[in-house]
Design a protein that fits this description.
169 residues; alpha+beta; 4-stranded antiparallel sheet; 4 helices; 9 strands
Length: 169
């Protein structure tokens, strides 16, 4: 009986094929926001059911774990008080108020605080994919435009509220 063994020369195309497949698969493993199952998943901070896509937010770790929130306020308070070590944090995402299933990185988002909005934790915050969209909503609803650092300062100063303005945390 004759045994056939692969020569180093014939193994090389297989190794190149495997390497090429791994490179092609890498984009599928990018770390980013995950789908939220509205009406059944709960906020990782206040533990309320996440039901309103327009106000949702996510903090994603370097391992790909997504902390999901029912509001921008909950994510800001979570990062301030419970949080994730800065080294373990990959990215922060907010739902675009106009296109709630589109996720925007917080550093690109413009935020609107308007009393005409009822966000889940009472600070009347919405996120927009760009400043022009936020400005258009401000002209319609009134209020003030904020960046992410101003949102965090607002939440640290005023805390979370529920219902009749009672502090939640």
């Amino acid at each position: 009986m004759m045994t056939v063994t692969a020569s180093p020369r014939s193994a090389r195309p297989l190794a190149l094929l495997v390497a090429a497949l791994l490179v092609l698969a890498l984009p599928a493993c990018t770390v980013g926001p995950q789908e939220i199952h509205y009406g059944s998943e709960t906020c990782d901070h206040c533990h309320m059911v996440i039901s309103e896509p327009r106000f949702a937010a996510q903090a994603v770790t370097t391992t790909g774990m997504a902390h999901k929130f029912d509001s921008i306020e909950c994510m800001a308070d979570f990062l301030e008080n419970d949080g994730v070590d800065a080294e373990a944090l990959h990215s922060l995402w907010v739902a675009d108020f106009s296109e709630p299933h589109d996720w925007t990185p917080v550093e690109d988002a413009a935020f609107l605080r308007s009393d005409a909005l009822q966000s889940p934790m009472g600070l009347s915050l919405s996120a927009h994919a760009d400043r022009a969209s936020a400005e258009a909503h401000r002209e319609e609803l009134g209020g003030e435009l904020l960046n992410w650092d101003e949102v965090r300062a607002l939440v640290a100063r005023e805390g979370l509220q529920m219902g009749g303005g009672h502090a939640h945390h």
